[in-house]
Amino acid sequence: MPPAPTRWRRGGRSPPRLLQRALLVAAFSAAALIVLILLQHRHGPEPPNPSTAAHARDSSDELLDDSPPAERDPEASHSAGTGDGSTCATVERMGEEAAGPGRGSPEQASLRVREMIRRHFELHGAERVRTLPAHEFCKQGFVLGKASEAGFGNEMYKILTAGALSVMLNRSLIIGQTRGLYPFGEYISYTNQSFTIHEIKHLWRKHHCARTYGRDLNIRVDIFENPAETNVLCSDWNNWKDPIIWFDGATDAVGIQFFLKNVHPRMKAAASALFGLPDSLYARPNTFGELMRAIISPSSKVQEAVDWVLKGANPDIVLHTRMMANRPVRARKAAVLCIKRALQISHIKGTPLVALVSDTPAFVKELKSDISEFAEVLYFDYKLFAKTSGLEIVGNDKPLDFRSRDWGSAPRWVAFVDFFVAAQARYAVVTGAHRRVGTTYAQLIAALAAANRHGREPSGANFTFLSSVHSNLLVEGLSTQVGWGHIWNRYAGPLSCRHQPHQCALTPFLPPAWWDGQWQSPIPRDVRRLLEYGVRLSNTGEVDKRHLVSHCRSRKDHVKRYHVLPPYKNPARS
């Protein structure tokens, strides 16, 4: 037999070498794969929070499907949807962190504050204090809350700020009047536990507080809007001896919460007891809702109009939209989707009743046609009310011309009927807007509605506040939410994702005043503004405490006071 060809003889000896080469290649491949996995584990994106992911599956799928193709850009949607912890978060993820189930229900904290407020007015309320003997009455301190009749939300925050400060300082509350009339006095009744300046002047003279006890009746004024002069961060207001204190210029939820960063432990502790700690892992109390519940109620005429609207049936969900005469389609679609989300959360059986409140009647009509497909719709038709009810509400029939775009074309009193109708919501309040979401008016609706439910009905524990933010507002993230009166302002900085689809976000009842929470970050304008108050912020909103203490040590208290009654002059010394 002839010998085998040479190549076959080589082939016969080659398998061991091939096997060795194959094993080497496999070993290198395995090593490379392990290195890649380790690198991805160390540097890859943070996995989404399970509750956040579940929430996104429940709501964002619908929202994404509703967005136009341009808004469903795969890269943009992925970036917004994952909320990469190292870069940015969507509004929904921010809301989940601020007001989600992981923080617990605010009901328990709110009921604690309710009891604080009840005890305060029991001890320092006008009913008791006006009966005190002279030597005790003349030692009493007071806080003045004074408002004009501009925008209801901003002006009501002035009164509520005074109420909060009276609790913090253990002083009695005075609600200021103009020419003998309370602010919005035709539409709102105020607690009989508050004083007027007129009554304090009368009692001061009656008890001879200046002559006998050497205490002139004056007001110490601190203007929050003047950063160079306000003592909100640097002074212990417990030490102020003036009979009356007026903390002026706090037109939103922020001013009074500046005391949370006051450098004096007593002031900080008093503020924290009423508002909770801003960086707490637990839900913060619905402080302004509880203050409203204690201080205001609708006037008898407004209550009659509210009863006419409700006809014995409180709305399940309330939608408030501030459109300023605009009717964008995306805002409407986002609002409808957010109502559906509220219905999901609330587990309402049967046909839900949804109440609509807006400054733009034409927008309400369009919303009504959309919502009527799945809910019964309630809306205060003030023209029909005026024709058929037989009731007449005395007040300004026409809005101020220069305010008609801001407040809407309806008479002023309609906003108060709308407000107290909306405050009867049983399960949820949804707020939307053409530009800025969560105005002071919407905040107060949600706060009072929650206070009306907490401790009374099973639904109170799960009462929900939602913000509907349409995609046009999120092209640059939340950077459009400027202004301290808007609830998402503290989230408007660089941690807010760009190019988000429509968002329906859980919203805290107590608007944040600082940037201590996760995903909160300031816009450059607010960084500059806080510097004027002596507060140095990092890019993500942390306060430089050393700088604040140094600032407070380098300044003196600014004192501005006015005499309510002429100072007493001792004849023996003259």
UniProtKB/TrEMBL annotation:
Transmembrane segments: 21-39
InterPro entries attached to this UniProt entry: DUF7810
Keywords for this protein: Membrane, Transmembrane, Transmembrane helix
Span list, region Disordered: 45-88
Tree of life domain: Eukaryota
Keyword set includes Acetylation: no
One Pfam family, short name: DUF7810
Protein name: Rhamnogalacturonate lyase family protein
